[in-house]
Design a protein that fits this description.
Keywords: Disulfide bond, Electron transport, Endoplasmic reticulum, Membrane, Redox-active center, Signal, Transmembrane, Transmembrane helix, Transport. InterPro entries: Thioredoxin-like_sf, Thioredoxin_domain, TMX_domain-containing. It holds the Pfam family Thioredoxin. This protein has 216 residues and is of the alpha/beta class. The protein has two domains: 121 residues, Glutaredoxin; 49 residues. It is 51% helix and 11% strand. The protein contains seven helices and five strands, in the order αβαβαβαββααα. 19% of the residues are buried. The structure holds 2-acetamido-2-deoxy-beta-D-glucopyranose. The site of 2-acetamido-2-deoxy-beta-D-glucopyranose has 7 residues, from strand 1.
Length: 216
């Protein structure tokens, strides 16, 4: 019985090589935590995908080859929209997969064919013929990066609350008063600052009397 033996060997070889290919991908996975840092440098081609989307599954081998072929020139990334909902919200996407080019705070959406050749051409120079999205739409623009930080604040607040309550055993009432104290203190500081500003410059409220020009 030689054939089954070879069969098993062949199967395990194939299996092993597919495992290597899986581990060895040049596609860079981006998340909420590392998106901003990674966007700071380089040219990126990023795909936003969902594991259940069949067009994304079809694109996957192409995306891997693209990442390998563009290595050293353009960084090829992907964002799992299901796992990174708050990051995905910052892209106004119409559907999966969503492909865009990002560079120096500018974002350009890709609307062409999803073949290896077309994608590579877009990543290398085709993007120059595409108009960038306005800065407030681009999650990699300075405004977009600040917005991203703001969007994670509620989540951080919830984490902080859970930590203080469960780890530090601080009762909810004390926490509530503590959190209320923050806006109240900020409001009082604003009033003090405005007070100081206007009492230093009393003339700011006085409009000078209009000067009449002498007619000749
Ligand atoms: C970003 O973070 C995720 C999750 O921690 C990690 O799997 C991924 O490799 C990171 N990406 C980069 C480019 O560092």
């Amino acid at each position: 019985m030689k054939i089954p033996g070879y069969g098993v060997l062949l199967f395990s070889l194939l299996h092993a090589s597919s495992q290597v290919a899986l581990a060895d991908t040049d596609v860079i996975e981006l998340t909420e935590e590392n998106f901003s840092d990674k966007m700071a440098e380089g040219d990126w081609l990023v795909e936003i995908y969902a594991p259940w989307c069949s067009h994304c599954q079809q694109l996957e081998p192409t995306w891997r080859r693209l990442a390998t072929e563009l290595k050293g020139k353009v960084l090829v990334g992907k964002i799992n929209g299901d796992q990174q909902p708050s990051l995905m919200q910052r892209f106004a996407i119409q559907g999966y997969p969503h492909i865009c080019h990002m560079r120096e705070g500018q974002m350009r959406d890709y609307a062409g064919d999803r073949s290896l050749e077309d994608l590579r051409h877009f990543a290398e120079k085709g993007w120059r013929q595409t108009r960038p999205q306005p800065f407030y739409r681009a999650p990699n623009s300075p405004a977009g990066l600040v917005l991203g930080k703001l969007l994670t604040l509620p989540h951080k607040g919830v984490q902080l609350h859970q930590y203080l309550r469960n780890v530090k055993k601080i009762p909810d009432l004390v926490l509530l008063l503590g959190f209320l104290a923050i806006p109240v203190t900020m409001g009082m500081c604003c009033i003090c600052l405005l007070d100081a500003w206007y009492s230093r410059r009393p003339s700011a409220w006085v409009t000078p009397a209009p000067q009449h020009a002498h007619a000749h």
